Amino acid sequence: MDLPNQSGFQSVIKARNLRMTNQRRQILQVLQESDEHLDAEAIYDRVRQKDARVSLATVYRSLTLFKNLGLVDERNLGEDYRRFETAQDEPHYHFTCLACRKVIEFNAPEIEQKIIPQIEAQGLKVTEAHLIVSGYCADCQRDQTRGKKHADTHLRIPNQTNLR
Amino acid sequence: MDLPNQSGFQSVIKARNLRMTNQRRQILQVLQESDEHLDAEAIYDRVRQKDARVSLATVYRSLTLFKNLGLVDERNLGEDYRRFETAQDEPHYHFTCLACRKVIEFNAPEIEQKIIPQIEAQGLKVTEAHLIVSGYCADCQRDQTRGKKHADTHLRIPNQTNLR
DNA sequence: ATCCCTATTGATAATTATTCTCATTATCAA
DNA sequence: TTGATAATGAGAATAATTATCAATAGGGAT
Predict the structure, then answer these.
(1) With an 8 Å Cβ cutoff, are B70 and A134 in contact?
(2) Which residue, of A88, A110, A136, is where some domain finishes?
(3) Are residues A8 and A51 in the same domain?
(4) Residue A118 has what pLDDT?
């Protein structure tokens, strides 16, 4: 949630002679207010609830703009799981539960302090690094062992009877 | 390229009463022969060159099957960059050049030895971990500073004049 | 070698997520 | 207030992947 405030955003916008529209304000606000990881569709839904008449195309356009302005990051949190979040100062990484799709953030200073320097020592220039960890959260592990019903649409545990 | 050989594959297939078809053989062979990271379309092209009449749908179906059998891994090597590779014994991670799309593999034992154990200590069960690093390889850095023409279709360097 | 069951395939339609098109609207500097 | 043009809405277009279904082909049993 440490995003430039609206007036800060406004100056960024004007400096590039872009325009500060109501749609952009709404979309940015939704992103700032949420601490979840939303996709374009979810952002679209929330913006509409706030009554703005914003089209899905505009949501996509705005997200692309915000990405390019460095205000928003697009994250691939696993297979078929692209989400957006406001840009953070601290580098951080993501664990995704394959059953309930919950996202848990964590730090891993080894990446910035050891792994990336090692890569750059080979002459490569690093601009981005994502560590994507998948598995099962504590709750869903419990449910599975109990054989409980849960949102198994996304279960990726290989199933002997359905390999195809 | 340390994949079960064809006879090993055959036994895996039969054990699940699946069938060893010519299409599957061809697709698997393409994956084994290549040390690049291919997408479904590229696999499709190569299989067709070997003259088999294989449909794209079958390529997708086979890749899904191989994934579920643990013979093949699907990798998200960055934005819009899903590729397949034969399953490896050693965990490894990927650097992708944003300019030429070259992929360089590297090890990072800190991930398996420190980061994952820390995550699991919190009660999470980890089944997968991908470290995706993006940036510019030595060659493309050189080209850029010289202002050379190169495949800039994929350049992601924010461009002040084209933010939208 | 032949038969039969059914797993697999090819061709193509359907689906999903995202981007594009273009006429219309709205922002904002003058 | 006006004018230049950035931005939008609505829907068409695109691209990647999956689903449908009749036809084909493994491979165990005979």
Answers:
(1) no
(2) A88
(3) yes
(4) 98
